[in-house]
Design brief:
By secondary structure, the protein is of the alpha+beta class. About 55% of the residues lie in helices and about 15% in strands. The longest helix is centred in the middle third of the chain and has 65 residues, at about 110-175. It starts with a helix and ends with a strand.
Length: about 400
């Protein structure tokens, strides 16, 4: 820096200290200029804040914004043209729904509906991406250009004006020590900078219709986005309504349980120590009643030869009547003569019986079956007698 430049910097610093510390008054600018300066300052703050908030509106996740900004910077460094897009929340939700809908099966009501909604959400994400692009091109970028170019240029003119004002005020107070020609040149430069700054601020404020046009573009992009979103959601709503109507009109399928395995305790000669199984036949609603049977509610371990042992849940079937007081029974395909009946079991179904081996105190009750799947009553132990109670 030259000697003249150093002297000018010293003059401005001295005048600033005098005004800030000593309370000296500098040259006052007119009210019109101050009003222009205030409006430009508000415009600058508004542009910066609106650009920031618009970016947050389009991309609400700060972590994703930071990651996207970093990726865009790396793409520019590498010379890549295509930049990664912002992960829209609708797209993430759509991917989740479509994934689990396909796993559940599109042939099911819920699975198919999940796939439909997921695909619609991904379409909404694509529409949102279009909104981001339109708003960035037609609203954010023009405002950013205004901030980086016009407003920055005005700030440069105002800063230059302030420096020349300080230089003029310093020389004016020392008039006599400083040549009049130098004071006059400082005054001319001050007025020149004031005029340039005033013209730039006036032109900016007079052309604010451009900012109005940019706001109109923002609203138009939003309107287009919502129209497309409404169209996607209306199509989805119709599709889901059709699914509901179809499901309601479809006859309900009755659940048919699988046959339960029957374990044969008679043959224990198996290499793995288990029991062979056979599938019980499915119950038939229209089949004729089978032989009368009882279902054991508790376990009974035989202690003497010829006693009937059974486990809780075993079915004891009356296979044939030996005489009017005695029947043969079948428990899991094995037969014993262990019941004395004082009356026929069916069709009267009102009977009392005694346990033939005097072990009735070990039992509490048995369930009586009309066929293999319908319980019609229970046998209860009353001393050495059994009482049948119908359901």
């Amino acid at each position: 820096m030259s000697v003249a430049g150093l002297k000018k910097q010293f003059y401005k610093a001295s005048q600033m200290v005098s005004e800030k510390v000593g309370g000296a008054e500098g040259t006052k600018l007119d009210d019109d200029f101050r009003d222009l300066e205030r409006k430009v300052d508000v415009t600058s703050k508004a542009v910066v804040e609106v650009v920031s908030k618009t970016s947050e509106y389009l991309q609400p996740n700060p972590a994703s914004r930071a990651k996207l900004s970093m990726l865009n910077t790396m793409s520019k460094i590498r010379g890549q043209v295509k930049n990664p897009g912002y992960p829209q929340a609708e797209g993430l939700l759509g991917e989740c729904m479509a994934k689990y809908g396909r796993e559940l099966g599109e042939e099911t009501n819920f699975g198919g509906a999940l796939v439909d909604v997921g695909e619609a959400m991904k379409r909404l994400a694509e529409v949102k991406d279009s909104l981001d692009i339109d708003v960035k091109q037609n609203f954010i970028d023009p405002l950013q250009t205004l901030c980086d170019k016009d407003l920055r240029e005005i700030q440069h003119h105002l800063k230059k004006l302030e420096g020349r004002r300080l230089d003029y005020d310093y020389k004016k107070k020392r008039q006599g020590k400083i040549p009049d020609e130098e004071v006059r040149q400082a005054l001319e430069k001050f007025h020149e900078s004031k005029e340039v700054a005033e013209n730039s601020m006036y032109n900016l404020l007079e052309t604010d219709i451009e900012q109005v046009s940019q706001l109109s573009s923002l609203v138009g992009s939003q309107l287009q986005y919502h129209r497309q979103a409404v169209q996607v959601l209306e199509e989805l709503s119709d599709k889901l309504r059709d699914r509901v109507n179809e499901a309601q009109s479809r006859p309900r399928r009755e659940y048919t349980p699988k046959p339960k395995p029957i374990f044969d305790f008679g043959d224990n000669n198996h290499s793995n120590g288990g029991y062979p199984t056979s599938m019980a036949p499915l119950p038939s609603r229209n089949s004729a009643p089978e032989q009368p049977s009882c279902k054991a509610l508790y376990d009974f371990e035989p202690e003497n030869e010829g006693e009937l042992g059974f486990r809780e849940g075993d079915i004891i079937t009356l296979t044939n009547q030996i005489d009017e007081n005695c029947t043969s029974t079948q428990c899991l395909k094995r037969r014993w003569c262990c019941w004395q009946l004082l009356a026929l079991f069916p069709p009267h179904l009102q009977l009392s019986c005694s346990y033939c081996l005097n072990e009735c105190e070990r039992m509490n009750s048995l369930s009586v079956y009309k066929d293999s799947h319908q319980v019609i009553g229970s046998l209860f132990c009353l001393g050495r007698d059994w009482l049948l109670v119908l359901v």
